[in-house]
Specification:
The complex is a heterodimer of chains A (181) and B (226).
Chain A (H helix, E strand, L loop, with lengths): L6 E7 L5 H7 L4 H8 E3 L13 E7 L2 E3 H13 E7 L1 H5 L11 H11 L17 E6 L9 E3 L6 H12 L15
Chain B lengths: L1 E5 L2 E5 L5 H7 L23 E4 L2 E4 L10 E3 L3 H17 L14 H8 L16 E2 L5 E4 L8 H9 L5 E4 L6 E4 L26 E3 L21
Parallel strand pairs in B: 1-5
Antiparallel strand pairs in B: 1-2, 3-4, 3-5, 6-7, 7-10, 8-9
Classes of the chains: A alpha/beta (181), B alpha+beta (226).
Chain lengths: 181, 226
């Protein structure tokens, strides 16, 4: 396969823990098969900072701040197929556990009133992205084409979806590969 | 013995059996959440809905009748069941990775069975109480799906009436029948039937969480190659 015909893939972690990316790397020696079939665009694997036109975008993590939303919209604009990777991208996951608490109270607790935080202040550097009032999954902001559930999804599940997409097939996960935990 | 057709197969039944009971007696099943063989059917989750002619009906409350033609495992009916599950997931706070019931949860297992890949709808992220006042049990209403099994078990089997529903429509919620509203102020006990019927991670026994390893829990898939 020549370089032009390679499938171009971008990946990112928004409000995630990089566990889904670690699980992605757990495809182990299949990575050698993968790099023959794909080129990586923006991804923690390449350290490219902006996303170009891609066939597939894999997004780990939900949306907890304004920068997450910005990156998600860039991915949606540039990726033909967008895949929500893992529990946090699909339902907000662990970061969304704060959703029943007022944001101001959370910031005060973390930076001012918790033990050892005497004299602390809530960060307000203009370079810091503003937190969202609630953490949201990806599909509440943009259209998502496919979902790979799991915390994290297994390497086999990620491999199944990627190879299906690369081959131009509708991705189907066997029932044993569908888990939410 | 009389019989009816279920997805093309003949299912025998005795008078008084519901469609779901007859189907289960014949070794088959229909997805369900609020049905439990030991209690009077409630017919609220609608997951067990089947089609007879043009009508969708709950198979847990509908008596079997001779000659009826029941459709259940069809793509369009399973689409509707998946939609019901998605609505249940977004109405509550169902975060499987941090839930002790994961792997033993009927809501989760139903979602796997019906291949629910995403919640599809916008999440409500409701603010619901967690009651840890009881010595041996935790009540996390974030995960309650209003199946009423605990209400029925406590009222009809235990004779204690510990649980009830309050509110109407989308505001319906589980409450505890104590002046304080706290589980710790009732005579709820580990031996109660109501302590054993919760299909989700709402009524949880304390100090036994995550004891069963992943791979050995009731709804985990069997290991490959065995």
């Amino acid at each position: 396969m020549d370089a032009k015909a390679k499938v171009r893939i971008a990946t990112t972690s928004l409000a995630g823990c990089f566990g889904c990316h670690m699980s992605f790397l757990d495809i182990d020696e299949r990575l050698f098969d993968l790099v023959r079939l794909v080129d990586f665009d923006r991804s923690p694997l390449t350290d490219i900072k902006t996303v170009g036109d891609c066939d597939v975008g894999l997004i780990e993590g939900g949306l907890c701040n304004a920068e997450n939303v910005h990156v998600l919209r860039e991915f949606r604009a540039h990726c033909r197929i967008l895949v929500a990777l893992g529990a946090c991208a699909i339902n907000g996951g662990l970061p969304a556990q704060r959703n029943h608490l007022p944001l101001a109270g959370v910031l005060q607790e973390v930076y001012q009133t918790s033990p050892g935080m005497a004299g602390g202040m809530i960060p307000n550097d203009p370079e810091l992205p503003l937190p969202l009032d609630k953490v949201h999954p990806l599909h509440e902001v943009v259209h998502v084409d496919y979902f790979i559930p799991g915390c994290p999804p297994s390497a086999d599940a990620i491999w199944q979806v990627l190879t299906d997409l690369i081959a131009g097939r509708e991705p189907v996960l066997a029932q044993r590969l569908i888990h939410f935990d | 013995m009389s019989s009816f057709k279920f997805d093309g197969r003949e299912i025998p039944f005795v008078d008084g059996q519901t469609i779901l009971q007859a189907v289960q007696a014949a070794g088959q099943d229909i997805p369900h959440l609020c049905y439990h063989p030991e209690f009077k059917p409630h017919g609220s989750c609608k997951l067990c809905s089947v089609r007879i002619g043009e009508r969708m009906i709950a198979s847990c409350t509908t008596p079997a009748a001779a000659g009826m033609n029941v459709e259940s495992d069809t793509p369009d009916i399973n689409d509707q069941r998946r939609t019901l599950l998605q609505m249940l997931f977004v109405e509550g706070n169902h975060f499987c990775p941090s839930c002790e019931k994961s792997g033993a949860c009927r809501l989760q297992a139903s979602a796997y069975e019906l291949q629910m890949m995403s919640p599809h709808y916008d999440h409500f992220f409701p603010d619901r109480p967690v009651d840890a006042s009881h010595e041996d049990f935790l009540l996390d209403t974030n995960r309650c799906i209003l199946c009423s099994l605990c209400v029925r078990a406590s009222r009809d089997v235990d004779g204690k009436n510990v649980f009830a529903f309050s509110g109407r429509g989308i505001h319906t919620h589980l409450i505890v029948n104590a002046r304080s509203g706290r589980l710790g102020d009732t005579d709820f006990a580990a031996a109660d039937k109501a302590a054993q019927v919760c299909p989700v991670g709402c009524i949880l026994r304390k100090r036994v969480g995550f004891a069963v390893p992943i791979g050995q829990r009731p709804f985990d898939p069997p290991p490959q190659g065995e």
